[in-house]
Specification:
The protein is about 15% helix and about 10% strand. The protein is of the alpha/beta class and about 210 residues long. The chain has two domains: about 90 residues, no CATH class; about 110 residues, no CATH class. The strands form two sheets. Strands 3-4-5-6-7 form a five-stranded mixed sheet. The chain has a two-stranded parallel ribbon with strand order 1-2. The radius of gyration is 24 Å and the shape is elongated.
Length: about 210
């Protein structure tokens, strides 16, 4: 069996002698990663031929988050394998993912919700760096120099209080803004689409930071 996807994947309920290959984006799998979706069918046969020396026999598309292979069954007949509990695949050492992970980090004192004053302090610190570097041109009719804007919305904003690992799944609407005070280490892990404003280096890290 080949299992793929973007994030970590796991299989429960198969006999122990069934070989399983997991290749996802997150684990940088040797076979790359793919989705079984109606708009992505063209990539399936090349992968199947390379791994199993045969094309795909049939594609079963998921509907509303579930898929049935074979004859249709009623919801009452679905059972969880008693041999392998789904919870056994959970990585207890990893933080909870997404919003649940952020709430858990706040409860543990690793994060606190950011305030507008936290971002104001960041802007002032960055403006001071720009002025001292002489990168801001003077403006006619004004004394001093222009103030560069390093503004950012505080979408889902948090201040990092202690060393921590970022939750997985911080993409799109689930992304966050992290402000790291001086003396606090930058969080590790995958920031996804989130932004990290680090007072230790006065730099912004993340895909959204290019123009900030």
């Amino acid at each position: 069996m080949l299992v793929s996807g973007y994030h970590r994947q796991a299989v429960a309920g198969l006999p122990a002698d069934v070989p399983v290959l997991v290749s996802t984006h997150d684990d940088r799998g040797a076979c790359g990663y793919f989705y079984v979706a109606e708009k992505r069918l063209a990539q399936l046969n090349p992968i199947a031929t390379r791994l199993f020396d045969r094309p795909v026999d049939m594609v079963y598309l998921a509907r509303e988050g579930s898929v049935t292979i074979g004859d249709a069954v009623s919801a009452e007949s679905l059972v969880t394998s008693p041999r392998i509990a789904p919870d056994s695949f959970r990585d207890l050492s990893a933080p909870l993912a997404g919003e649940a992970g952020l709430r858990d980090a706040v409860a543990k004192g690793l994060l606190r919700e950011a305030r507008r004053s936290d971002m104001d302090a960041w802007q002032q610190a960055r403006a001071a760096v720009d002025r001292s570097a002489g990168t801001l041109p003077p403006i006619a009719g004004q004394s001093g120099r222009a103030v560069a804007s390093h503004d950012s919305s505080l979408h889902n904003g948090y201040v990092v209080l202690k060393p921590m690992i970022l939750p997985a799944g911080l993409y799109g609407a689930h992304s966050a803004t992290f402000i790291v005070p001086k003396g606090v280490p930058r969080p590790t892990g995958n920031p996804g689409h989130s932004a990290i404003y680090d007072f230790n280096t006065l730099t912004c890290a993340g895909a959204v930071c290019e123009n900030r």
